[in-house]
Here is the input.
Amino acid sequence: MKNKLLIIALIAIVFINKIHAQDYATGQKHYNNYVGVGAGFTTGYGFSYRYIPENFGAMVNFAPYYQKDDNSTVSFGITLLQRLRESKDAGLYFYFANSVFYKKEYTPASGYGTYPGQRYVKTNSTYNTGLGLDLQLYTGTSPIVVDLMGGFGGYDSFQTITVTAEFAFYYRL
Here is the structure.
């Protein structure tokens, strides 16, 4: 575990130094809005929108999934971002994420005292929180952005605390 954390820290230092050594080109366009898809244990999964006007921004992930038997799953996450460094090739951010996963399942009732068509419903909500570093990789002049996030997460209302990983693909607007 210590070796993994050391490797992650060294990679982050290398990227920070690379990003810090580069500056924006004069007149380079700054993008505020990003749309795409993302998935993560603490940021949620689904359609993603990211808004970063200056040094602080936010990201929302949302995915509803409904089945024809009325079972449903919903993922919703909100992430706060703070820009640490940015260059023409990459951006480094600190993130704080919160998400909820909601699941509703219907099962047929059986046994004494039940009637045909009766169903039991079971709901479950899981709350996750995370913080760490977010590395955005810009693909030259292309509007496509690859976003990699990693840090620590508290899962199921901090029942478990461990490392987390998140990723997303965005289109810059």
